[in-house]
Structures are given as structure tokens and as C-alpha cells.
């Protein structure tokens, strides 16, 4: 079956603009994660959705970042008033169970803020 | 918050030499997972360890979970160029229904 998909694969935007990144998890996966990975760095947790429970937003770096997910389907990560330090690859992952299972990653969205 | 220390940050080896990365926690872990990220790619799940003292093998890769469930290692025997990438551990803490916490990764570099 299809894996996790993300769009766009690349996004170049000007500083101050808003961007929206999309993630399509694997069908039936209740848990969905967003991570940020700067060049040569590890994974930085941003937000976690588990079914219809309230999301864990503890990793969001500022109030310019927000994410939504409707039920167990698509999620969008929105960054408002982008800054150059937002440049990174944004990875989405989904997993089958309550968050401790194997995570399946999408290919990521490479965001460049000029 | 909960953290795990993953070392080393980088390891340069000649092709054919062995490679090891370690993850250490001060807190007892419920389980530990290992992922590999190829250059330019995304993390891919390798294995999950759950039991105290567990050892699992995948061809040239050996994964261990410590007896106290506070540390884990990944050892690659006779590295090949296809092993190049960054290896991450990720874990869930006992009595926590929380999401996975990730190590910083160890980058395996094969010397030309």
C-alpha cells in the first residue's frame, strides 16, 4: 500500500510569508508526528496527534507554528511569517498504535526561506 | 524532559571495519527503536527491542538492550558503503504514554 506522502517536496518562500505543509499518513494509522530536521542535525519533535485526542503541541518552537489534523486523516503544518531560521526539512511520520510503535516517515518537505 | 545520550556523534571507519553506536538513558526505558537515515533520505525503521538483555541480529547488524533497560547499542560488523548514513535510537519511557524521544544520531562515514 501507499506510504506516508508529503507535499510539496520543496518550498522556497520569502521571509515573512506564510507556508502550509501537508502530510497524508498511512491509512489506519492513528498517530501522526511532525518533526523538523535542520541540515546535518537530528530530529526535532514539533507536534503529535493521536486519534481524536488533544494534540501534544509541546515541541512547537513559537506561536507562528500551528498544525491541524482532522480525525485520522491528513494533517497540515502552518508556519506564519516565516523566518530564515525556519529553513529545514519538515518530516511527517505516522504509526499504527498509541505512539510507541514503529514510525513510518514521509519523504519530507524541504523549506527554504530567503 | 526525558533525554537519551547517543554517542559518538560521528564515526569514520575504513570499509570493512566495525561500527558501534550507543544510547544511554538515566531513566528505565519501555522499549527502544533504531532507525537509519541515508544521506538525503528520511529515517527508516530497523528494529524494536523490548525485553531486558535482548539481543537481535539482522545480517551484519547486532542490536542490544541493556539488562537494566537504560542503554542500547547497535553494532555493524565489516561495514560496507551501503551502511553509510545516520543511525538514530528512539525510545518510550516506562509508565509514560508519551511519544517517542529521539537520540541525536550517529553519523557513519566510510573513509575513501
Describe this structure in words.
The complex is a heterodimer of chains A (114) and B (112). By secondary structure, chain A is mainly β. Helices cover 0% and strands 46% of the residues of chain A. Chain A is built from no helices and ten strands. In chain A, the strands form two sheets. In chain A, strands 2, 4, 5, 8, 9 and 10 form a six-stranded mixed sheet that branches. Chain A is globular. The model of chain A has no long low-confidence stretch (mean pLDDT 92). Chain B has 112 residues and is mostly beta strands. Helix content of chain B is 0%, strand content 54%. The model of chain B has no long low-confidence stretch (mean pLDDT 92). In chain B, the strands form two sheets. In chain B, strands 2, 4, 5, 9, 10 and 11 form a six-stranded mixed sheet that branches. Chain B has strands spanning 5-7, 10-14, 19-24, 29-37, 44-49, 55-58, 61-65, 71-76, 85-93, 101-102, 106-111. Chains A and B meet through strand 9 of A and strand 4, strand 5, strand 9 and strand 10 of B.
End-to-end separation of chain B in angstroms reads 40 Å
N- to C-terminal distance of chain A:
37 Å
By helix and strand content of chain A, what is the structural category?
mainly beta
Task: Provide the helix percentage of chain A.
Answer: under 10%
Q: What oligomerization state is this entry in?
A: heterodimer
- Number of helical segments with 4 or more residues of chain B: 0
Number of strands of chain B: 11
Which word captures the global form of chain B? Answer: globular
Report the mean per-residue pLDDT of chain A as an integer.
92
Q: How many helical stretches of chain A?
A: 0
Biggest β-sheet description of chain A: 6 strands, mixed
Which residue ranges of chain A are poorly predicted, with pLDDT under 50 across at least 5 consecutive positions?
A: none
Judged by helices, strands and strand pairing, the structural class of chain B is mainly beta
Please tell me how large the radius of gyration of chain A is. 13 Å
Mean pLDDT of chain B: 92
Overall geometric form of chain A:
globular
User: Strand-residue fraction of chain A?
Assistant: over 45%
- Helix share, percent of chain B: under 10%
From N to C, what is the helix and strand string of chain B?
EEEEEEEEEEE
CA radius of gyration of chain B: 14 Å
> Roughly what fraction of the amino acids of chain B lie in strands?
over 45%
Amino acid at each position: 500500500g501507499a506510504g506516508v506522502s508529503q507535499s510539496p517536496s520543496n518550498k522556497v518562500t520569502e521571509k515573512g510569508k506564510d507556508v502550509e505543509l501537508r502530510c497524508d499518513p498511512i491509512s489506519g494509522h492513528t498517530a501522526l508526528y511532525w518533526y523538523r530536521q535542520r541540515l546535518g542535525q537530528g530530529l526535532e519533535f514539533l507536534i503529535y496527534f493521536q486519534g481524536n485526542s488533544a494534540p501534544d503541541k509541546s515541541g512547537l518552537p513559537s506561536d507562528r507554528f500551528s498544525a491541524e489534523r482532522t480525525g485520522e486523516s491528513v494533517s497540515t503544518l502552518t508556519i506564519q511569517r516565516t523566518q530564515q531560521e525556519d529553513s529545514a526539512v519538515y518530516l511527517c511520520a505516522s504509526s499504527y498504535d498509541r505512539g510507541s510503535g514503529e514510525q513510518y516517515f514521509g519523504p519530507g518537505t524541504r523549506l527554504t526561506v530567503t | 524532559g526525558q533525554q537519551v545520550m547517543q554517542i559518538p556523534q560521528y564515526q569514520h571507519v575504513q570499509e570493512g571495519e566495525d561500527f558501534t553506536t550507543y544510547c544511554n538513558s538515566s531513566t528505565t526505558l519501555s522499549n527502544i527503536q533504531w532507525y537509519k537515515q541515508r544521506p538525503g533520505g528520511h529515517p527508516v525503521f530497523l528494529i524494536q527491542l523490548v525485553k531486558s538483555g535482548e539481543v537481535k541480529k539482522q545480517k551484519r547488524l547486532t542490536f542490544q538492550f541493556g539488562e537494566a533497560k537504560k542503554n542500547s547499542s547497535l553494532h555493524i560488523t565489516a561495514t560496507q558503503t551501503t551502511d553509510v548514513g545516520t543511525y538514530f535510537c528512539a525510545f518510550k519511557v516506562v509508565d509514560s504514554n508519551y511519544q517517542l524521544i529521539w537520540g541525536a544520531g550517529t553519523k557513519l562515514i566510510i573513509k575513501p
